[in-house]
Write a structure and sequence with these properties.
It is rod-shaped, with a radius of gyration of 35 Å. It is mostly helical. The protein has helices at residues 2-23, 31-81. The protein has two helices and no strands. The protein has one domain.
């Protein structure tokens, strides 16, 4: 009887230990969620940097086209004055 009781307690302790292990995140208590949040934050930051770079490039193109138009007008006026 004593051995059966000891075996039952060991089995129960093993079951409790297994249940605790299974209930805890295998990624160290939310570490995976934190890593995902960090990755999403870095992705958003990268996207914002990309957006700013595209806007800056478009602004430069707009300025360059404006300069081309201005130079053409100046050239036309110069040719008309000759």
């Amino acid at each position: 009887m004593g051995q059966q009781w000891a075996d039952a307690n060991v089995t129960r302790a093993g079951s409790v230990s297994l249940a605790i292990s299974l209930s805890q995140s295998p990624w160290d208590g939310g570490l995976l969620r934190e890593q995902v949040a960090l990755a999403e934050s870095l992705q958003a930051e990268g996207l914002e940097s990309y957006r700013k770079a595209v806007l800056a490039a478009l602004r430069e193109v707009e300025e360059a086209l404006s300069n081309v138009n201005r130079y053409r007008e100046q050239e036309t006026l110069r040719n008309e004055s000759l």
